[in-house]
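Sequence design from tokenized structure. All designs in this work follow the same two-part layout: the structure record, then the generated sequence. An example of the structure record is given first.
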């Protein structure tokens, strides 16, 4: 609900107004002007969550890439809760913090890539705060409730587009490998927009290499890679902790981003050394972070992100496991 605030001034009787009182009233008036009291969004922010869910090996291709990648699927139940975790951004128990917003079974839409869910939630706030977005999914064929999380920061008047990708637990079918760009949404001119990349591998792998081609009319620049805390790129460091398998990103040229994920630190910086192992699975790998153009001719619009030249290395460093086929998904940009 939009709220409009108005400063009301009143006086009683015919009391003489002192110079100090006049100064005080003037100061209050300036404070109200700074707060923009008639702006309905001055003390609100919007969280726009777009969630896709993949059941089983829905994203996978066989080793010869002859089968089409699967589609995102419908869920039995979906609850998205936003917790205010400002006091402890790194908490492992977000449910212990106040609830800022909730969406129960938000509306879904279908297109060529499958089913996706969209929830738009308003949050009252007067200063920058940090929130944990928690999605709880019930898969009609899955084992109970599955949970996905994202941490975001919000400032008054802002809109945060949150891409969430959830996959059913378990190991993909033998011979199944894929790397996929997942649908995402953003406003034109957005900075730091995150495009999800999902990895499917039936066996342990030692590295990934791929290229992403994009339309320069839509993407003004690629700023880097952000690894989600849940990613399988975090591996054991042998002392009870974890370390991150590094991802190297080349400077985009000809609207092409080149990415290499491999860790040569296990036994020295050598191409012949054993590599850190990325265990089998199917889930979010990382986000490609981009800035979007603000001078698009028409909105809304749809742009294709071409993912190709995908190679998986075995833990020994060879490329016996390889998939090298283009994979197209879309980035939808709204006003």
């Amino acid at each position: 609900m939009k709220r409009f605030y108005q400063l009301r001034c009143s006086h009683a009787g015919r009391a003489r107004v002192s110079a100090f009182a006049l100064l005080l009233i003037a100061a209050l008036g300036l404070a109200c002007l700074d707060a923009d009291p008639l702006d309905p969004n001055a003390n609100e922010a919007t969280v726009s969550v777009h969630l896709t869910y993949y059941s089983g090996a829905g994203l996978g291709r066989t080793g010869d890439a002859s089968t089409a990648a699967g589609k995102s699927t419908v869920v039995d139940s979906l609850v998205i809760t936003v917790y205010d975790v400002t006091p402890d951004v790194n908490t492992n128990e977000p449910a212990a913090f106040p609830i800022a917003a909730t969406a129960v079974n938000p509306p879904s839409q279908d297109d060529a890539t499958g089913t996706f869910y969209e929830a738009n939630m308003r949050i009252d706030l007067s200063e920058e705060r940090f929130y944990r977005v928690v999605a709880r999914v019930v898969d009609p064929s899955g084992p109970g409730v599955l949970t996905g999380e994202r941490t975001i920061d919000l400032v008054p008047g802002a809109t945060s587009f949150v891409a969430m990708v959830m996959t059913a637990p378990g190991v993909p079918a033998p011979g199944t490998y894929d790397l996929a760009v997942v649908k995402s949404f953003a406003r034109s001119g957005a900075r730091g927009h995150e495009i999800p990349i999902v990895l499917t591998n039936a066996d342990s792998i030692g590295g990934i290499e791929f290229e992403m081609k994009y339309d320069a009319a839509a993407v003004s620049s690629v700023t880097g890679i952000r690894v989600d805390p849940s990613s399988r790129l975090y591996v054991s460091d042998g002392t009870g902790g974890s370390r991150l398998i590094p991802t190297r990103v080349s400077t985009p040229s000809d609207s092409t981003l080149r990415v290499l994920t491999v860790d040569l630190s296990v036994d020295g910086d050598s191409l012949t050394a054993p590599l850190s192992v990325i265990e089998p699975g199917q889930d979010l790998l990382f986000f490609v972070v981009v800035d979007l153009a603000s001078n698009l001719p028409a909105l809304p619009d749809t742009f294709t992100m071409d993912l190709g030249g995908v190679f998986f290395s075995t833990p020994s460093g060879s490329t016996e496991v390889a998939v090298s086929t283009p994979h197209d998904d879309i980035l939808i940009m709204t006003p």
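The chain has one helix and 21 strands. We note this feature because it recurs in several other targets discussed in the main text.
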